[in-house]
Structures are given as structure tokens and as C-alpha cells.
Amino acid sequence: MDKKLDPSRDDLPLVANTSHILVKHYVLDLDVDFESQVIEGTIVLFLESGNRFKKRSSSTEVACPSESNEACKFRMPEPCQIPVTNTKTFSSKIGYNDFVICGKGEKDTSGKDGNHDNQEQASGISSSKYCCDTGNHGSEEFLLVLDCCDLSVLKVEEVDVAAVPGIEKFTRSPKLRNQIVHELMALPADRWREQLDYYARCSQAPGCGELLFDTDTWSLQIRKTGAQTATDFPHAIRIQYRTKPQGRSVTWTSDQSGRPCVYTVGSPINNRALFPCQEPPVAMSTWQATVRAAASFVVLMSGENSAKPTQLQEDYSSWHYYVTMPMPASTFTIAVGSWTEMKPEICSSNDVATERSFSPSEADFRYIGVCGHMEYPCRFQKASATTQKIIPHRVFAPACLKGACQETLLPLIPPCLSAAHSVLGTHPFSRLDILIVPANFSSLGMARSLIYLEWYDLKTSSFCIPHIVFLSQSTLTGMSQLCGTRLCHEIAHAWFGLAIGARDWTEEWLSEGFATHLEDVFWAKAQQQLAPHEAREQQELRACLRWRRLQDEVQNSPEEMQVLRPNKEKTGHVSDSGSSVIRHGLNPEKVFMQVHYLKGYFLLRFLAKRLGEDTYFSFLRKFVHTFHGQLILSQDFLQMLLENIPEEKRPELSVGNIFRDWLESSGIPQPLQRERQALAECGLAQQVSAEVSAGDAVHAFPFLPPRAVGPALHPWRGARDRRRRRATTVAKWVRVNRRPRKRKRKDREEVFEKVRHRWCELIVKHKYTKAYRDVERFLQEDQERSQRESFSCICS
Hints:
Number of strands: 25
Shape: globular
Largest sheet: 8 strands, mixed
Mean pLDDT: 77
Strand content: 15-25%
Strand order of the largest sheet: 6-5-9-3-2-12-15-14
Number of helices: 21
Structural class: alpha+beta
Distance between the termini: 27 Å
């Protein structure tokens, strides 16, 4: 376990003062150096102040985590020099990081961050004894606070956007820099290309004065002498910085072919160790990035465009990506490695799965009216996008996995995309890349928990962000079932988790519950040969398995972590500055928990059965059209659901009742308890259990032929229907694989791996800390088998 992630102080602070000022656009210009394992460069922030915070009262408190009443001391920039911390300036209690400047190619090993004080921040940052204000205290200066960790910040300066040639053509005040930024951000959505072009030009403009800055464990704090309000603060600033090899937002490793690679891993601290940013989900922004790396590498990012490399001198290439849909900074993703690209030979809109149930009409996809989100080039308003069943897609993987991807993964993408479109309508994003990540992908890592971020699926060996999905190579093994369901789960996140995000990260069920419920629906429709009754049986079987997994989960986890809406009536609340704390955001136990997946799934399954599937999915399409591009809370979904269904279909259903029974209580929800018998009586599950029992009998008497075991142990004998034949097939597979046989070396190794896997499960379950190294070693050496065993057994 990471010593910094103290279980007794497991809350994650979001300290950015988003109520005072918001980052509306980022421009990143980065170099990736594999030799030093460092990403370095600049990031330009384009800011917008909130008018209602121009006159802040003196009660708002946010800033340096010092216990003294001294004024905050900031690094004073010196001409032509990089500012360096004076270690004598700060008390030893503060624990500030020193800035150690390393030459290119040298690993930066500085910055041993301590932990934050959980007691001080438990009720919100504003209650801490901070001595610098982010609002207006009369004569005091405005403070911009960004979420930042494990970074070496070298320089901060204001950008002279007024010096950009041609900037005067769309601004009425060519000499007022903040007004120029405001008018640039206010350009209409149909001028997005011009807007991106001028963002890029402004980002390359010269500096017009260095700004004072400092850092603590979780933040970067910036101020300008004389700027007393957010309106006076520069609205375009450039930060020169460098990541650290031990930074927790990215992983430097080798792929399955032994080639170096680096990628974001869904860290508990999100992207704040990749670039300074505003982490709270309300800080919706766009971005563009230029990344340079050696010409032998491919750079993938969560951008809207399928970037192609631009050849530079000295065997280097440059890649450029952009995003025009405002999204939280935590959705930014980068992956650099020696990936091989694979595309489908033919990607035709006619090559889709046959639609059966829940088939929406043309009107379902083309609602009349304007979108409810902030203005951006939205696909829901484009006729060509509303009818596009299969979006362009690519697969990237190490060369050694090319054959497996072409055989297993590529053929599944078109039917899964088409199935999703037939259920929910317009694809929110214009393209999809799928990357097979290295074997040490930390989906079961001990210290890598992401309990609040919608975009990372620890329990499903995958990681979904806009325009790109990370999949573990374990999904390529065996039949298409595991790969198909994983893919459907991540495709579902395009709507729930990405296009529609949770305003409070503790409400993880709003993404994971929906994705888990929809993966069954998508996968049933994607299997073209599957009859409707077979699809229902398959879904019932998976519900039965999830029920058993949920029972085990609530018996072996703390009650406080079983609640889907832990903040209750305070859900979505932040401090006056906009800062907040994510409860248990750094708790490593969360990585093994699936409560938000399972209870959320059963809630949505309960609602769909109560209302009728046609009614429910018709409403869901309407909900997506209403709330895409926005952040929601649980009550937004539930209130709209109850308002849009007939009175006779919602007896005893109310927002309050659902909160009480499903979202704000631990354990098994009462409505689900009443369904317990129905889940236990799942016909296909009973038949498979009987077949496995029969397999046990054959295993016990291997010298007897199957007929000699007797009809009591072989209830399928003489049956002809398809369900029993499928159950028989399962049982035969179990029987063949359990029958004693002369084992080769590979078989012995397989048994040994299974024993190690079970041993690790027991270690985690009983918190046997002395053996945590065994778990770490197993995850590193046998990652693929670990995932297959874990995810197959829960069938989620």
C-alpha cells in the first residue's frame, strides 16, 4: 500500500476555487521523454471570472494549510531566473514541496508529499484555518487555486494576448487583454475552428509579467500583485512545469512486446499530477494539446480528431488533438507507446445488428428543441449524426496481440455500437479508439482506487474516457462473451458517465449502475443469432450471479461504503469557494468494491420491470436528449422519470422512497429482498447447477460411464429443448476440465495459479497485511488470469 494513502485519512480534497473563477479552455504543449520518464512543457489556461463573486465577504477562507496567522508568503520571481523555494520561509508544519530543477534526461526524485489533514478538511476546505483568501478581502489580492500534485512548477506568467496578430478583427477592445479572452470564449459554436486557431495563437504569445505562485501537497496557488478580484486577475496565464517519474497520474512501463510506454491510469488523484487544473466536475472545459515524442511512438488522446503525426527534425513527431465539448479535466487522457493500428476492412452503416425489442422510432432520435447544455458543436443537433449507427473506430495494441484483436475484438465493435444506437440513439462522440493496455494495467492494483471517477472501471478490466477505451488483454482470451460485455459496458459510458456526468462524484452509481444495466441490453441486441427468450434467460442468469455477488459484498465491507448517496441532503454541496472533499476518495479498499455497480444495476432493473421495458427505455432516450452535456444528481433522473410515466405505473414510487430504500441505506435494499426468491429460481441457473453437480458425480466416479451414474444425477437425460442443451454444454465443459488426467507442465502451472489467486482473495478479504506483498507480486506476474477469474466469476 502507498504509504501516502493513509487509511485513517482517506478523503480526497478538491481545492480549486471554482466558485470564483473557472478554466474554460486549456492549451497544452508537451514533450514526452522516456529516458527520464518525464513529461514537460507548458499549459495555458483561459479563465472566466464569476460576476457574483466580485464582492466576496471576508467569511470565505481558502488557501495555505498553515496553522499560524501569518500572511501567505509567495515566491518572488527574479528576472531571467526560475523561481526556487526558500525553505526557510515556511514552517516545518506546512510540509511544502521544494522545487528541484533537473536537467533534461535526469530523473526528478524530489517532492515527497505528505498527507493532508483529514480532520481539518472533513467539513470542507472553507472551514480550515487558511490565511489567504481566494475572494476579495478589500486590500488583499485574489488567489487562483488549482488542483496540483507531484509536479515541479517552474514558472507562471501572464500571456499578452493583445500581441497576437489579427486579434483585433473579432474584439471591440484590442488593448484590454481580459476583454479579448472573454470575447474569444464567447464566439458561437459554428466558429469553433476559428476559436481553436486563436486559442493556439494566444498560447504562443509572449509573456507580459511573471506571477507569484506557491504549492502545497494538493494545490498550486497563483496571484498577481494589485489584482484584488477574479475580474482583475489575468484571464490567460501560462504555466511551465514538469511531471515527476513517481507522479501518480501516469504510469511508465513496458507493453507486452517489451517496448516502453506511458499512459494515464485512472489514479485516485485524477490528472493533477499530469497538469495543474481544476478537478471539480463543475469545471467543464475544452482543450487542445500538442504532444511530441520519438517518431517510433504513437500518441493517443481523448480528442475528437483522429490525429496523424507531423514529422519533425531529429526523428521526432508531433501529434495534435482537440475537444470542443466542455468536460471535466479528469477526462483528459494520454497514452504513448509503440502501438499497432487496426481498422475494420469495411465500416458500413448497413453492417449492423438486426433490431428487435426497444426499437425506437425516427422521432425518438430527433427531438425538437434546443439542447439544454452550454453552447458547443453538438452531435444531437446534426441530422447525419442522429442516424449514424456505427461511428468510425480503430484498435491499437502491441504487435504481438494483433492477431487476437483482429479475431476477437474487431468483429464485435460494429454490432455493439449499432446495438447501443438502437437503444439510446445518437452517439455522443464522433469516433472511438480502443487500446489494449499492458499486462500490468492496474485494474486490480492495491493502491489504485478510483471510487468517485465515472471514467474508470476497476472492476471490469477497462478504462473509458471520451473517444477512447482502455481494455485489458485478458478480454481477448476465450470466447467473445467477456470481450463483448466489457465493450458494451464501456460503450454505455459514452452516454452515462461522459455525455451525462455526476455533479457529485460520490454518486458513482449514476455512471456505473447505468453502464452495468445497459451492458446486458446492448449485448443481447448485439448477438444477432440470439432469440428474445434466450436473451431474457441470459439476463436472468447474470442477475442471479450479480445477486450472489452483492450478498457477498455487503457481508464483507464496511456499512458506510455500501451507501450510494453517502452525503444525503448535502449531495452536491461545496464550500463558498467551490472546494470540497470526496469522502473515502483515497481509500484503497474501494478498488475491490462493486456496490455502486450492483445496487445501481438492481435499482434500474427494478424500475424497468415496474414501468415496463418499452416505457422505461423510451423515457431513457428522452432523458439522454434532455441532459446530455450536463452534470446531474440522483434527483434529476428520478424526478424526471416519475414525471414522465403514467400514474398507474408508479404506485408507491417516489423520490423519497427510492432515496430511503436504495440510495441512502446500507445492505440489501428492501425491494430487492422481496425479489430474492425469483432470483434464486432462475431456471437456467438451476439447470447449470444441476449439470455441475452431475459433473461432480462423474468426477467422483471417473471409472463409470455417464449413464452409469444414474438418472437422479443426470436430469437432462432425454431432454430436447435448447435451454437444456445449452446447460448440458456448460456441464460438459466443466466435466471435461475437472476430469483427472495426466497433467503436463502447463496444467500444473495453471492449477498453481488458481491456488495463488484464491490465496490472494483470502488475503484481501481478511486484511492479512503481512501477505500484501504476495498480492502485489501476483498482480504483476499473473494479471491476466487474475482478471479472468475475478470478472468471469461475477459475470458483470
